[in-house]
Amino acid sequence: MTKRFLLILLSLLFCVPTASADTGWKITDFKSAVTIQDDGYVRVQETIRVDFGALERHGIFRDPLDISLRTGKVLPLNQK
Q1: What angle do CA 20, 55, 53 make, to 5 degrees?
Q2: Among residues 64, 1, 76, which one has the least CA distance to residue 32?
């Protein structure tokens, strides 16, 4: 039950739109695969395709979100 709740919560967190400082670009494709492993770790793999148009800067920077449980406990997401 806990793993299912965590999977649903993670799926919703990654669907939240983020603010952008640049204009003139758009995300053309977004795929997210979330796997809860037997050891309790969560593996998230994202594939993002972006059309930057005429912008000279390329790249997306985003910080991972922490997970807040109903119990009040906060689970920080660490990147490897």
Answers
A1: 90
A2: 64
